[in-house]
Amino acid sequence: MIKFLRKNYFYILPFLIVFFIFNFQHNNFLKANQSFSYFDNNELSIFYKTWEIINKHFVDPSKIDKKKAILEASRGLLRSLDDPYSEIFDETQAKIFEEDMTGSFGGVGMEIGIKNGVLTVIAPLEGTPADRAGIKSGDKILKINGESTENMLLDVAVSKIRGKPGTKVVLTIYRDEWVEPRDIEIIREIINIPIIKYKILEKNIGYIKLNSFNIKSYPEFLKAYNNLKKRGAKYYILDLRNNPGGYLDVAIQISELFVPRGKIILQEQKRDQSVTKIYSNGPGILKDIKMVVLINNGSASASEILSGALRDNLGFKLIGEKSYGKGSVQQVFNLDGKLLKLTIAYWLTPKGLKLEGNGLKPDYEVKEIEKEKIKTELDDPVIKKAIEVLRRM
Question: What is the CATH code for 104-192?
């Protein structure tokens, strides 16, 4: 069983819970689904009457598409939940979703989500067109190529932002400190998500920047740590800023390098309010390491799980800005080539903090500065603070 989190973060189970068949011959539908008790005849009558009126009276019959109607009706069920992470992907959108998890796709290079009903940037990915264009975590996307994003589904927004490499997309962005929204033109590229970078800072301080939690992150993290250790590192900075998440299993694997066997890494709260604890299997070989963790508003989901596990179990200090607050679990169901992604649980830190909507507050709050003012890592006030904290250990 593979578990993962993302803008969007989910876990796949080997069975399908929900199977729903729409038959637009009303009587045949009821007869074939007598055991289906979620809706009775009266409750479904508005659906069938609406469909009947559309077929009899809509001005342009060529626009009546039964398959599209079924898909949009199903999406309407999800919209009634007021949950930005529950959605249905059609075949094209399902392909985009799969590309996200392999780490290579065409687009601008940023993670987006719905926050307080507004399409919002979770994090631009380092070195991508969005990053170079100055897009920041928390930016609100009001329009895509002039089209309003109000009430736009997340997967639809993603498909409109992506496109053929070399083509442009214009995003109308509003930032809290701006008086008016601004149009930002970005040229699409093939996006190969960089997993990790690392270097030695100030003699014996090792710096590891982890950009995502995908299938290559765990071995790349081990490689980075071992390399820095051989080069004399005794203190470490783990930078999870603008890391929007990825596979949950990978976050757990990395956590287990630090958290001793038998300690809680995270907790899962289900719809009946029951809580399942997920324990470390070890080895916990890095439990005594001297390390701090950097977070910001772009640190989401798996980043928050790892940060919470390290702080709650080992007292690692978090430095930077409050994290995004994405801690819900989505399960993916296969719908005949389409994908249904449904929120089924919430994640809690080992000490019981609900991540969804709350995020993690840093132990040392340090505001970031404009990238243009940072020539090297040592110009970054967050990293400066991290070094200061490490030197006191």
Answer: 2.30.42.10
